[in-house]
């Protein structure tokens, strides 16, 4: 479990993380998401003891990172860029990390199998593909058999096969009862991975919800309409208190009325319908609605 209590990081007037209290629970994959500058990286850095909070605490398994007796056995993280030794064989990279943390060699063999590295373990790191390097990072993070996994940029750059592998792996690790926290981009792929979402905006918590519940609650139902007289139909729809936006190719995106009501208004107005398709906004659109719909800056002191 990861517990953040009133976690705050201030850089002068900038509140990068603002009084964040949230618990990341075991048994599920939690996605930490938010627009650029929302405070995701700083939050992860505070959990991993790389940045000192201005106020509040970040604890994993009840302790601050600096107080963990054997961090590699409690928390597994993907290595940052440039951390892997290009001239070393993948297996030796793992063995070296294991030895310096008092981890037996048989665990190296286990993580090689878990990460699907069997065929490339003898190759030098610089000769591995991007996807294989990511698998090596995963193997390193699992060496200490930690109960908490924190993966920044878990899916960035992965092809569909790599993404599917990562999803299966992380869900498996979560089902074993581990705490799994992922962040990074792209949002579309991260939201496919996470079954719970913690959404930040300007350093503040805006949602801490089951991903599907969030989608159900906030997703705006819309109906896409194509007809022979969109201007006339739009007038009738707004007259019936519907929200109407113009889509591509003259289509109307209608909210606030269901397809049957739209159909009735079109028919009684003598309008011929070509398409009437109910739609739902995606989880990405929900997250954009919850935040500021795009990049921005962290909160500054005194800002509303
Ligand atoms: N060392 C620093 N000094 C001053 N401000 C900083 C520092 N590090 C981060 N910030 C600011 O803190 C805010 C949060 O940054 P952070 O990197 O955590 O955002 P993020 O959500 O990870 O964004 P992105 O998605 O772009 O990586 C940003 O406004 C950033 O400019």
TrEMBL record:
InterPro entries: AAA+_ATPase, ABC_transporter-like_ATP-bd, ABC_transporter-like_CS, P-loop_NTPase
A Pfam match: ABC_tran
PROSITE patterns, alphabetized: ABC_TRANSPORTER_1 (PS00211), ABC_TRANSPORTER_2 (PS50893)
Keyword ATP-binding: yes
This protein's record includes keyword Lipid biosynthesis: no
Stretches assigned to the ABC transporter domain: 2-227
GO molecular function terms listed in the Swiss-Prot or TrEMBL record: ATP binding; ATP hydrolysis activity
Phylogenetic placement of the source organism: Bacteria, Bacillati, Actinomycetota, Actinomycetes, Streptosporangiales
Keywords, comma-separated and alphabetical: ATP-binding, Nucleotide-binding, Transport
PANTHER family registered for this protein in UniProt: ABC TRANSPORTER, ATP-BINDING PROTEIN
Domain of life: Bacteria
Protein name: ABC-2 type transport system ATP-binding protein
Protein family: Belongs to the ABC transporter superfamily.
